[in-house]
Amino acid sequence: MKVVRAAYAGACYGVQRALDLALKAVEDGGCAYTLGPLIHNPQVVAQLAECGVRAVDSVEDVAGAGTVVIRSHGVTPEVKRSVAACGLPLVDATCPHVARAQRAAADLAEQGRHVVVVGEAGHPEVEGLVACAREAGAPVSVVAGPDDLPETLEGPVGVVVQTTQTREALDAVVAALEERGVQLLVKNTICFATRQRQEAAAALAGEVDAMVVIGGRNSSNTTRLADICAAACSRTHHVESPDEIDPAWLAGCAVVGVTAGASTPEEQIEAVATLLEAL
Ligand code: SF4
């Protein structure tokens, strides 16, 4: 089986930075706690736990001494304040692209706009964006697409977007708002790494017999890559590890494409590619 890897795939700058900072916190302070899993990749999170980087649900769950590491997709300002109030050392591994989106949400709110966040309701990054806008005093709506927009939107509107969304999702919401004739300011905060991975995945999926997308099922950006690939290649499969691959999926295929989400380390990509090449 010929295996072709997408031109851009796998761990991004922000995820790698968060991993490095968490491991350094362990080296420096003995134990590190992340509020929720550091990245949306169960295999890597298990390895991190063995190294002393533990996931907890909230600051109250931190047992004794240790450093709190904020994940790459950031937290709400309230969570940051609660860490500070506990007096625990804090390492902020919020990806700079997410921090930029948080500032954009706050700026739009400070301008007196109704802030529309294009993203996945309940995702931690989106919760952070919503909180930044609300703290700056704005009404906020989270929308996955135009159908989620509130029927009435008072006053000027500002749009900000979850860093891992597609350009199409943003454009569809913006087009619907423009049709309503609202006074609009759009901050496109989709990150460069996301765009690169999505474009490379779409291009490759159109050229191969089947696609394998590697990454956590709880990873928003990996799921989006799988959706993009499925739109161009009906034989698309999303896996977390090589042992999930069923050779029957690839019966009759000569060329299979491989891509991976921003929270998928190189070793996992290599392991899947090696297995596919041997089929
Ligand atoms: S996908 Fe983009 S925003 Fe998210 S961590 Fe990676 S570089 Fe940062």
TrEMBL record:
Give the binding site residues for isopentenyl diphosphate. H40, H73, H123, S219, S220, N221, S263
Per its UniProt record, the required cofactor names are: [4Fe-4S] cluster
What does the record give as its pathway? Isoprenoid biosynthesis; dimethylallyl diphosphate biosynthesis; dimethylallyl diphosphate from (2E)-4-hydroxy-3-methylbutenyl diphosphate: step 1/1; Isoprenoid biosynthesis; isopentenyl diphosphate biosynthesis via DXP pathway; isopentenyl diphosphate from 1-deoxy-D-xylulose 5-phosphate: step 6/6
Q: Name one GO biological process term.
A: terpenoid biosynthetic process
Quote the record's cofactor note: Binds 1 [4Fe-4S] cluster per subunit.
An example of a Pfam family matching this protein is LYTB
Q: Which GO terms describe its molecular function?
A: 4 iron, 4 sulfur cluster binding; 4-hydroxy-3-methylbut-2-enyl diphosphate reductase activity; metal ion binding
Instruction: Spell out the Gene3D superfamilies in the cross-references.
Output: 3.40.50.11270, 4-hydroxy-3-methylbut-2-enyl diphosphate reductase, catalytic domain (3.40.1010.20)
Residues involved in [4Fe-4S] cluster binding:
C12, C95, C191
What does the record give as the reaction this protein catalyses? isopentenyl diphosphate + 2 oxidized [2Fe-2S]-[ferredoxin] + H2O = (2E)-4-hydroxy-3-methylbut-2-enyl diphosphate + 2 reduced [2Fe-2S]-[ferredoxin] + 2 H(+); dimethylallyl diphosphate + 2 oxidized [2Fe-2S]-[ferredoxin] + H2O = (2E)-4-hydroxy-3-methylbut-2-enyl diphosphate + 2 reduced [2Fe-2S]-[ferredoxin] + 2 H(+)
Residues reported to bind (2E)-4-hydroxy-3-methylbut-2-enyl diphosphate: H40, H73, H123, T163, S219, S220, N221, S263
Please provide the record's keywords in A-Z order.
4Fe-4S, Iron, Iron-sulfur, Isoprene biosynthesis, Metal-binding, Oxidoreductase
Q: What is the enzyme's class at the highest EC level?
A: oxidoreductase
InterPro entries xref list: LytB/IspH
- Catalytic residues, per the record, are E125
Is the keyword Oxidoreductase assigned to this protein? yes
- Residues binding dimethylallyl diphosphate, per UniProt: H40, H73, H123, S219, S220, N221, S263
Enzyme Commission number(s) of this protein = 1.17.7.4
What family, per the record? Belongs to the IspH family.
Q: What does it do?
A: Catalyzes the conversion of 1-hydroxy-2-methyl-2-(E)-butenyl 4-diphosphate (HMBPP) into a mixture of isopentenyl diphosphate (IPP) and dimethylallyl diphosphate (DMAPP). Acts in the terminal step of the DOXP/MEP pathway for isoprenoid precursor biosynthesis.
| Protein name as it appears in the record | 4-hydroxy-3-methylbut-2-enyl diphosphate reductase
Q: Which organism is it from?
A: Gordonibacter urolithinfaciens
